[in-house]
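Re-running the complex after MR caught last week's input typo. The corrected sequence lines follow. Everything else is unchanged.
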Amino acid sequence: MALVEIRDVHKSFQRDSEKIEVFAGLTLDIEPGSFTALMGPSGSGKSTLLNLVAGLDRPTSGTVKVADAMVSAMTPAQLAGWRARHIGFVFQQFNLLPVLTAYQNVELPLLLTNLSKRERDERVRLALDVVGLGDRLRHYPRQLSGGQEQRTSIARAIVADPTVILLDEPTGQLDAKSSVEVLALLRRLNDEFKKTILIVTHDAHAAERAKTVLHLEKGVLIEKGVKA
Amino acid sequence: MKFLPLLWANLTRHKRRTVLTVASVALALFLFASLRTVVTTIARNAAAGSAQRLVVQNATGLVFPLPLSYANRLATVSGVTGVSYANWFGGRYGDGKRFFANFAVDPATYLDLYPELQLPPDQREAFLHEKTSAIVGQRLLEVFGWRLGQDVTLQGTIFPGDWTLTIRGVYTPANRSIGDDMLLFHHDYLDERIGRAGIVGWYILRIANADAAPQIAKTVDDQYRSSSSPTKTGTEKAFQAGFATMWGNVSLLMNTIGMAVVFAILLVTANAMMMSARERTKEVAVLKTVGFSDGRLFGLVMLETGIITLAGAAAGLGGAKLLYRATNFNAAGFLPGFDVSVATLVLGTSIAFLLMFASGLVPAMRAARLPVVQGLRTVE
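Corrected-run output:
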């Protein structure tokens, strides 16, 4: 049974007097434990799809279901609580809070749980250890390199042990070396920790690391490649 | 508690701006407390006059004197249990920059009618028996660095010349509204020096029953209606209230300025809070992506505003209370008993809460209503 079920999703935007249709009946399944790369040219709807799965945006019609939860029918308050438990989101521009340390940034999702301070501390340290930043706890984002910032962002995404990790161009701002490190980390999270990963990318190297590659063009899924 | 680091990080993000915003709230509420205390002190002092004392003044005006010969007849009016008299002297000391009230009084009867002026018995005796002696309030003694037994020379303004008086007593007012920076000396000495015996500024009558005050006042005024110096008699409370009404427009002005200052600061604070929230649009979107609900973000922004305004309120209102108490401020004797009242503190705190809601509501609602996708697209 698919972890993410997208059924006949239509999504359109109004820009001035123009109606822009992104999806016209998109249907897609993402399996649990998969590592899926979503590729396609700019404007093909990759990020919009990611936002729909994360409950950050709503389809005009159709349904989005994640781990049996009908995301497309939830209220904003339900979505917030649901996202905190089930979604880990990584942005292209890292989006760490500049006034918080790496530790505090990673702790943010845990503040919404009932975990004790000690339990939160254990989890934050573990997440930062997993991404190789166990020695950067007290560093502020400005004191970290781009690769380290992105790894901190990944630590924030995995710290609450979410059902799905969504990444929007995670290597877009990184140099080649940092990109390789981040992609290796993602692969490790998938192989070792069985995390379900959906990554939007333009980067062919990033797609190579994925086990499934989907191509979107003008909102239509045109190709699905599954690697051995 | 677990959100405290996040709150603190946001508050200290622009330390200078936060400090200035807190300072502006503090200054606004300090001014509000100060101006309102002027108004409340004037009102309280006006109401503090005894209802059992009547003041008899010349019907033409306070600056016109009355004959001393009225004293004996006033004492015979039914219900009157004591008579005294006084005269505004208007002397200055030193460079004259520090104003203080000074009166020529009939010592024995005056102290009898004003038990609020508390003097050690030996000092009282010394004052009563020495024509060129004076008593002063504790504050006046400290202000000019005088000491008991010292000769001090006042420059007369209404009654020209140098007037040397020996300080024989230091009184303590039992009622703060009376003020502790007056100087009182012998009316006899004034008469003797100016050769003007038989004239007083006003009379003070003690009456047995406050309820009989209107009737006694009418009796007195009727008694002198056809004389060359008709009188106007009223309770001391009314007499002081008359002074207060002279401040009437000032009170209105003070209240208006106070509210205008608070309103101006409200705009400054609201602007600072909105600027701060606008700068963080993308961060708010990130927090929503992480799972922070609209309500929680609303609460966090309101709490942040609350900390700023309440810290400012604590500094401004607490500062005013402590400063005026510590310095025993009384506006050079014009406002005895100047002290920020509990009612003013409560009103100031209410204004701070109002300020918090007024300045925090818009940015808090903006944060709560922000669509995540739109927020993430924000370029910082």
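None of the earlier attempt is carried over here. Residues 30 and 317 of chain B are 5 Å apart (CA to CA). Chain B has two domains: 4-46+247-376, 53-208.
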